Write a sequence for this structure.
């Protein structure tokens, strides 16, 4: 189900699974930003009144690795709370993101994960994504 602005603070605990480097206030602001834009969306699934999973998605208008169109629907993050995993929640949340992207005119949907995140890689492959590329990013101080 598409989350609404009143749920932003309550969803920050789930989003911290995706982005643990942020504190709850920062996560609430991030979620509110996703809920306030036409190019982003937040979906949640609850079980017996408890938030069990969350997905954040966006439209990316810049180049997306392996894609030929623009905009591309993009899974920015998906998380399911311990105790609710292996019940199809992440797959249902992804399906909602994909439907939202189709309704926005997208013909492609993409995502990414850290090269060392084997759980995320396995999830993506099991849900129908195909690997487009592997890259190593570099930086240096100026």
């Amino acid at each position: 189900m598409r989350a609404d602005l009143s749920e932003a603070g309550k969803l920050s605990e789930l989003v911290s699974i995706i982005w643990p480097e942020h504190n709850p206030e920062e996560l609430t602001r991030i979620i509110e930003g996703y809920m306030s834009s036409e190019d982003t969306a937040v979906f949640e699934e609850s079980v017996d009144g408890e938030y069990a999973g969350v997905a954040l998605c966006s439209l990316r208008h810049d180049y997306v690795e392996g894609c030929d169109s623009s905009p591309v629907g993009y899974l920015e993050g998906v998380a399911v709370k311990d105790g609710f995993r292996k019940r199809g929640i992440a797959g249902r949340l992804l399906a909602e993101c994909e439907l939202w992207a189709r309704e926005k005119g997208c013909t492609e949907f993409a995502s990414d994960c850290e090269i060392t995140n084997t759980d995320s890689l396995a999830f993506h492959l099991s849900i129908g994504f195909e690997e487009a590329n592997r890259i190593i990013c570099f930086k240096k101080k100026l």
Summary: The chain has one domain: 5-126. The longest strand covers residues 50-60. The chain has a mean pLDDT of 95. Residues 29 and 135 are 30 Å apart (CA to CA).
